[in-house]
Amino acid sequence: MLKHSLLLLIVIFLMAACGQRSSKNLEVNMDDVDTGELQLSSESMNDIIQNLASPIEVAALINALNVPYSASYLADPESLSTNTTSFEMAYYLGALSADLGYLNMYQKTGSEINYLSTINQLADALQIGQFFDFATIKRLATSGTDLDSLMFISVNSFNNMDEYLRKTGRSNLSALMIAGVWIEGLYLATQVARENNNEELRTMIGEQKLVLNDLLLVLNNYRNEVAIVRYINDLEIIKNAYDNVKITYNVGEPRTIEEDSMLTVVQSESSQVTMSEETLRQIIQLTQQVRNMHMNIKT
């Protein structure tokens, strides 16, 4: 389910072929991408991606709490520099996709054009835009009548993008895109938590300790790259606050389910997050600082 949500998010942020700003002035020198050998296996990377809390889920939870829409939570795509590195572009691509998940959940389609235009530029500049059938994705997403086809195209597009980045020695950019998705999603959740005392939202924020550990595991494969060390160091600051979060697991009684005429034993498990108010305040504050800095937002 997490993987499907993440892939649906990718479709949402790519669902427009149109864009009011041309990408011809947005260029990247691909020679500045010099990655070391990825130590994690493809299977390990996929596991981490599947466990990533999708901003679609974050936005759905926020919406379910009847929290009013607030444009103040979102980054302004117009403020992002187009004279930047491929590393920053990959991060922006992930972060803006998270904002689009929030916009879509609140059905703010009229506010999406600038986000879609900027994301379209970023994808083209990173030389991955060729893997997306923008016209078809836009038609399916706006009609909302064929979710199965939309999901199929999203899965295929994401797999092609990931495979191409790895084949061309740019899995570091994929990792930074994931980092952008995660930090922006956490930022949205913590901004709402600042003003709304909700246990489910609080638990979701606390559980991100596990995802952050995995994310750092991925990024640390590229510690030889100065541009990525910046992100690692800032995520380590958030991790220091998360060190005070305790997650315990309770193993329940196994249960038997029937699937495809076969009986399967499933082990039930629940988790409990223990997090003080001070720790939550630290996570909120540090997430905001890190997010605003990497999105060039002055505070």
Task: Walk me through this protein's architecture.
- By secondary structure, the chain is mostly helical.
- It has one domain.
- The protein contains eleven helices and four strands; from the N terminus they run ααααααααααββββα.
- Helix 9 runs antiparallel to helix 10.
- The chain is globular, with a radius of gyration of 19 Å.
- The N terminus is likely disordered.
Write a brief caption for the model:
With 299 residues, the protein is mainly alpha-helical. It has helices at residues 2-13, 42-51, 55-64, 86-105, 113-125, 134-143, 147-167, 171-195, 199-219, 226-242, 277-294, and strands at residues 246-251, 255-259, 262-266, 269-274.
Roughly how many Å is the radius of gyration? 19 Å
> What structural class do the secondary elements suggest?
mainly alpha
Q: Number of helical runs? A: 11
Q: Report helical residue fraction.
A: 55-70%
Average predicted confidence as pLDDT: 75
The geometry reads as globular
Spatial gap, N to C terminus: 36 Å
Q: Enumerate the strands of the largest sheet in spatial order, edge to edge or round the barrel.
A: 1-4
Percentage of β-strand residues: 5-15%
Secondary-structure element pattern, one letter each: HHHHHHHHHHEEEEH
Q: How many strands appear in the DSSP assignment? A: 4
Number of domains: 1
Indicate the low-confidence ranges by residue numbers. 1-38
- Main β-sheet, in a few words? 2 strands, antiparallel
